[in-house]
Amino acid sequence: MADLSTMDGTGATKTFTVGGVETVPEFIPTPQRVSEYLEMDHEQVLAEMQSVEGRQRLHQTLIEYEEDLRELYPTFSPESLQAQLDLVGETLLEKEQFLRDVDSPEKKGMFRRVWESMKAFPKRHPVITSLLVVALLAAGAWRMGWLPKFDGFGFGLGEGGGGASGGVAEGAAEGVAETVLSGPELLLETAKKLVTAPDDFVTIDKTVIFRGIAYDRENLQPLLEAVVQGSGIDTTAVRIVRDPTSRFLTEAYLKRMLVQDIGVKPENLIIPRLLLGE
Amino acid sequence: MITVLYLTDAERAIWRMLSQEAQEGWTIEPENGNFRDSPQRREMRLHLLKLRDPKLLDFQEKAKKANTMEALTALILTMDLKNVNDADVAELFFAIGPGPIGRVVESILATVTKDEDIEGVAALTLIRRSLYQAMTPT
């Protein structure tokens, strides 16, 4: 458990211990962190974050405290501060727009039904709850400084979050997971992948990674054909990732369909055992 | 009732494979959102997650105190969203972004048979559409 007793008045934690490992915090210029550090009004910081000029002013002010920031946050990088501030500002704008849209007078009623549907839906499709809960957990892991705790949990949320995409690229080349999971573990694993994985179709060199399919046998072939042809890639490696709600498909069946019926080269076929159940 | 589903090309291919009976009464509109997510953006959305619901905050506290992976897993699997306030659910969907929602849509769409399941998928596509609109520069 994280020891947060060293929390100082700036909202920073000098060091904390997680599972016996001492870690140092990263400086992420969120409005809360910046307002606490600079002792500025939170609303004023939020307003500054909304414009390029405002973010430049915040950058200039923060850089004046570079030495202090380096001491508090040994990983603090003045070179990347402006880009971080811009990312915070852009993300805040996107979030504001999304929340305003779903709460707008013309959509509020519809979205009330949407949210109710989402709260009831998971009874039959628990992956949705798992997905949201894992996001909740991941947010806590980052913001509260208990990220190291999750190393063994397989979030792949390493420094800068880059571990997720890197892992996919390596996985495509190596055939990744060898462990066979089932039941709740498979559900959780899927939720974690959904949170940390890049977009639906990721092209890495000549490899198409195709995720999240759950099809009956008779439905799989036309869909795969559409994906493979739609990708516009001649030499195609198809990586199948199954959802826990899907029906069982044997490895032999998938291979036969992809190689014989769709024309994927056998050497380019990647089917992690994790996703094949039996 | 929500009756419109905004589906991508691949999702429409799945939709057409459903029985005629299942497809009846629903309107399909194209989803052309092309927002490209990145690990940095995802991380930042999680950093900016702002929750107020006591149930979710309590869950985070309990998760922080869980000493083993087994305890943490058990905690996650027993969590539900019943009675969580709408604003926090919206915050969580913003944090995960449109990509994961699309993958859930794909996987569930292939197995739906009942109207209530299709309505759930329709709700997901509405959330995704709104996320795309917010995240795509105009």
Q: Main attributes?
A:
A: 278 residues; mainly alpha; 2 domains; three-stranded mixed beta sheet; 11 helices; extended; B: 138 residues; two-stranded parallel sheet; 6% strand; globular
Write up this protein:
- The complex is a heterodimer of chains A (278) and B (138).
- Chain A has 278 residues and is mainly α.
- In chain A, 51% of the residues lie in helices and 8% in strands.
- Mean pLDDT of chain A is 62; it is low at 1-22, 145-183, 197-219, 226-250 and 271-278.
- Chain A folds into 2 domains: 1-102, no CATH class; 148-276, no CATH class.
- In chain A, strand 1 and strand 2 form a beta hairpin.
- Chain A has helices at residues 31-38, 42-49, 52-63, 66-72, 78-102, 108-120, 127-143, 163-174, 183-196, 217-231, 251-261, and strands spanning 16-18, 21-23, 201-204, 207-213, 237-242.
- With 138 residues, chain B is mainly α.
- A two-stranded parallel sheet of chain B has the order 1-2.
- Chain B is globular, with a radius of gyration of 17 Å.
- The chains are: A mainly alpha (278), B mainly alpha (138).
- At the A-B interface, helix 5, helix 6, helix 7, helix 8 and helix 9 of A face helix 1, helix 3, helix 4, helix 5 and helix 6 of B.
Can you give me a brief rundown of this structure?
The complex is a heterodimer of chains A (278) and B (138). Chain A is mainly alpha-helical and 278 residues long. Chain A is 51% helix and 8% strand.
Mean pLDDT of chain A: 62
The percent range for strand residues of chain A is 5-15%
Strand tally of chain B: 2
Strand content bin of chain B: 5-15%
Low-confidence stretches of chain A: 1-22, 145-183, 197-219, 226-250, 271-278
Determine the number of helices of chain B (DSSP H or I, runs of at least 4 residues): 8
Which assembly state applies to the chains in this document? heterodimer
Poorly predicted regions of chain B: none
Report how far apart the termini of chain B are: 30 Å
Shape of chain B: globular
Report the structural category of chain B.
mainly alpha
Helix content, binned percent of chain B: 55-70%
Radius of gyration of chain B, in Å, reads 17 Å
Helix run count of chain A: 11
Biggest sheet of chain A: strands side by side, in what order? 3-4-5
Order of helices and strands of chain B: EHHEHHHHHH
Taking the alpha carbons of the first and last residues of chain A, their distance comes to 37 Å
Number of domains of chain A: 2
